[in-house]
């Protein structure tokens, strides 16, 4: 039963160009080029666990001491008084807004219930140091992976001529450095997908979850179908902007306002250039217009293109959020708030931010 399902799912007429079989692109000593091995698509999963162990070690022995040296405190809010009935209601729905019925049921005033609820929700908020460590881990990876990607792709012809992603497909050879670049990048996105459920929970939780799943699907299917060339360009383009996303957050949590403002300005420029200009008008235009001119189309290619367009939709949403923050920052005179998302409980918006710069605090006191 399972074998029949797999045979239908991996139908060659769906996943490969016309007149091409899985045997044609299977790796082997008698082949003219080195093809991707479909079994390697599972290697990033255990490698993701290694990433999570490395991350934990870096956070404990490097990022936390570094953050504390910058004056970032690992303070926790005051705990709510013990109340089993309220605790049970909180576990059922932590986002309760109307306390009237609950207060009557427990014979308490609405004010008492609301106050307990605020304290209880505050307990679940991560400290600034925890958020700083998370951003520093992502910043470190994106910076190193982007540098590694530049090193790997610098001498590759498809970096400079995107048509080379399709010319000669599917008989395109795989080098060991591209293999490592793919495996490392896939493992990192697997680790983010797993750890997202206990990391700092942000308002765009499900958007990020869809983004990670779509990215993993793109990497996995492109690997199986030997479309690794266009996949490497996607990775390089996305890592570039994410470096600034995480560095802006980390500098904000460390209260380095001037550095944060400079990095945020660079983020706006790099993000718009890579995600809103190069990505749709170079990558997607190439996959949608140039690819059909250079190779015969097959159903799986439309699946890949749909996933690329899904990522573009997420990019547009995040671009709108970033531009909103940029507009508010221009009015306020400094960058305030979280980039691309904010904590689901602790608002980092310009109107509610508790991370004011020293100069601003001084001016308020004088006033």
UniProtKB/TrEMBL annotation:
Domain TLC: start-end pairs: 130-331
Protein name: TLC domain-containing protein
Pathway per the UniProt entry: Sphingolipid metabolism; Lipid metabolism; sphingolipid metabolism
Bilayer topology term: Multi-pass membrane protein
Biased composition, class Low complexity, residue ranges: 341-353
Pfam families registered for this protein in UniProt: TRAM_LAG1_CLN8
A GO biological process held by the record: ceramide biosynthetic process
InterPro entries per record: HD, Lag1/Lac1-like, TLC-dom
Organism, as annotated: Manduca sexta (Tobacco hawkmoth)
GO cellular component, one term: endoplasmic reticulum membrane
Residues that span the membrane, as ranges: 179-198, 205-224, 262-282, 302-323
Taxonomic classification: Eukaryota, Metazoa, Ecdysozoa, Arthropoda, Hexapoda
Gene Ontology molecular function: any one: sphingosine N-acyltransferase activity
Region (Disordered): 339-367
Transferase keyword on record: no
Subcellular location: Endomembrane system; Endoplasmic reticulum membrane
Keyword terms of this UniProt record: Lipid metabolism, Membrane, Transmembrane, Transmembrane helix
Reaction(s) catalysed by this chain's protein: sphinganine + octadecanoyl-CoA = N-(octadecanoyl)-sphinganine + CoA + H(+)
């Amino acid at each position: 039963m399972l074998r029949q399902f797999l045979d239908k799912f991996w139908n060659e007429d769906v996943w490969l160009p016309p007149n091409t079989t899985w045997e044609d692109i299977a790796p082997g000593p008698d082949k003219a080029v080195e093809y991707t091995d479909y079994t390697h698509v599972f290697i990033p999963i255990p490698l993701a666990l290694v990433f999570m162990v490395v991350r934990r070690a870096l956070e404990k022995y490097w990022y936390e001491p570094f953050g504390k040296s910058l004056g970032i405190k690992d303070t926790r809010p005051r705990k709510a008084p013990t109340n089993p009935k309220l605790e049970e209601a909180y576990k059922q729905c932590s986002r309760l807004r109307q306390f009237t019925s609950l207060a009557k049921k427990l014979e308490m005033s609405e004010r008492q219930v609301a106050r307990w609820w605020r304290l209880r929700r505050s307990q679940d908020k991560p400290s600034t140091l925890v958020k700083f460590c998370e951003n520093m881990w992502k910043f470190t990876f994106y910076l190193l992976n982007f540098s590694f990607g530049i090193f790997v792709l610098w001498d590759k012809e498809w970096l400079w001529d995107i048509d080379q992603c399709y010319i000669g497909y599917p008989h395109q050879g795989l080098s060991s450095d591209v293999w490592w670049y793919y495996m490392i990048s896939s493992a990192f996105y697997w680790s983010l997908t797993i750890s997202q459920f206990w990391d700092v929970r942000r308002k765009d939780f499900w958007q990020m979850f869809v983004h990670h799943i779509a990215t993993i699907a793109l990497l996995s299917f492109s690997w199986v179908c030997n479309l690794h060339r266009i996949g490497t360009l996607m990775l390089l383009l996305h890592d570039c902007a994410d470096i600034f996303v995480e560095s802006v957050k980390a500098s904000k949590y460390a209260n380095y306002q001037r550095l944060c403002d400079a990095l945020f300005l660079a983020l706006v420029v790099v993000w718009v250039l890579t995600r809103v200009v190069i990505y749709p008008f170079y990558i997607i235009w190439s996959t949608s217009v140039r690819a059909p001119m250079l190779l015969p189309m097959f159903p799986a290619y439309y699946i890949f293109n749909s996933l690329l367009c899904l990522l573009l939709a997420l990019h547009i949403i995040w671009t709108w959020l970033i531009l909103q923050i940029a507009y508010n920052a221009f009015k306020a005179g400094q960058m305030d708030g979280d980039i691309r998302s904010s904590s689901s409980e602790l608002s980092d918006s310009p109107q509610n931010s508790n991370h004011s710069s020293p100069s601003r605090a001084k001016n308020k006191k004088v006033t």
